[in-house]
Specification:
single chain; 151 residues; mainly beta; 5-stranded mixed barrel; 10% helix; globular; binds zinc ion
């Protein structure tokens, strides 16, 4: 667990090359605490990602965040065979899975992240997945893993 005493400068440095700025610092501070925060409008109740400071429904700046529970379904699935170098990503060992997942507790709110603990052939649109975390550069990053299905 990361320390909650991270300064904004720490966040910028540790999550580089991701863009941490005054609009997204709270989002990435959540990552550091293994919490996936999404924007929430205190005027109309709407929730959304990406983590922008104005409500896309009512244009209010009265926003805070809520934390997603983490269960969702695959909305879009990609298998990357090449791409920019990233720590922990090796395209020579097989395709790198990336999915856009819609959260069950916030319909319409989606996050794109990698999928872990899954074979590429198991990854299909509509697959139930759950939020998990992995470390890159010593900092937590969100990922998804297939949800165990009980029969
Ligand atoms: Zn609103």
């Amino acid at each position: 667990m990361s320390t909650p005493t991270l300064t904004d400068a720490d966040l910028v440095e540790r999550y580089a090359p991701l863009t941490v700025d005054k609009d997204t610092a709270d989002f990435y501070r959540g990552w550091a605490e293994r919490e996936l925060r999404i924007r929430h409008c205190t005027e109309c109740g709407h929730t959304w990602l990406p983590f922008r400071p104005i409500c896309p429904r009512c244009w209010s700046f009265a926003v805070d965040h809520v934390v997603v529970q983490g269960d969702g379904t695959v909305h879009l699935m990609m298998l990357l065979h090449q791409g920019p170098p990233a720590p922990g990503v090796d395209y020579t060992t097989g395709p790198y899975p990336v999915a856009t997942v819609e959260f069950a507790d916030h319909p319409g709110v989606r996050l794109t992240a990698t999928i872990v603990d899954a074979r590429p052939e198991d990854l299909v649109v509509g697959r139930a997945v759950s939020l998990t975390w992995f470390e890159r550069n010593g900092m937590p990053h969100p990922a998804f893993r297939p949800t165990e299905v009980t029969r």
